[in-house]
Amino acid sequence: MKFGSTPPPPPIVLPDHVIAEVRHLLAARKKIQAIKLIREVTGSGLKEAKDLADAMEGGYLPPTPQQFHAPPQPNYAQPSFPQPSFPQPSYPQAAQASLADRARAFRDSGDPERAVALIQAETGMTREESARFLGVLG
Fold this sequence. Notes:
There is one protein chain. This protein is mostly helical. The chain folds into 2 domains: 16-73, no CATH class; 94-136, no CATH class. It is 55% helix and 0% strand. The protein contains 8 helices and no strands. It has helices spanning 16-27, 31-42, 46-57, 65-68, 74-77, 99-108, 112-123, 127-136. It is elongated. The chain starts with 15 loop residues before the first helix and ends with a helix. InterPro entries: Ribosomal_bL12_C (IPR013823), Ribosomal_bL12_C/ClpS-like (IPR014719). It comes from Actinocorallia longicatena. Residues 56-111 are annotated as: Disordered.
């Protein structure tokens, strides 16, 4: 490190449930909401939160508090953001249904975009891969 330069900032640490929510928002193409969530949970600046969201779009997973042996922040236990929720398909045993069954239910109910977002959120596939997967389902 050169004299006068500042050390790099520590990585932004996110709990597992926040990582999942950010990935869901990014898969649903709601990047601004994902950045707002990162800022709310971590207290980081706009640039840092945007850089993290960009990196997560590219496949990066930020460290969790357990990896740093750091106790979670108090607001982690009671998140102030809504938890992701997909409407339940109209058939019984929805909680035990496979991803393919749930995606088919969204597609068959006339909401293929929700089906693609569900596939993306649960598999990490790209939008195009998710759409192909949905097209192959019988």
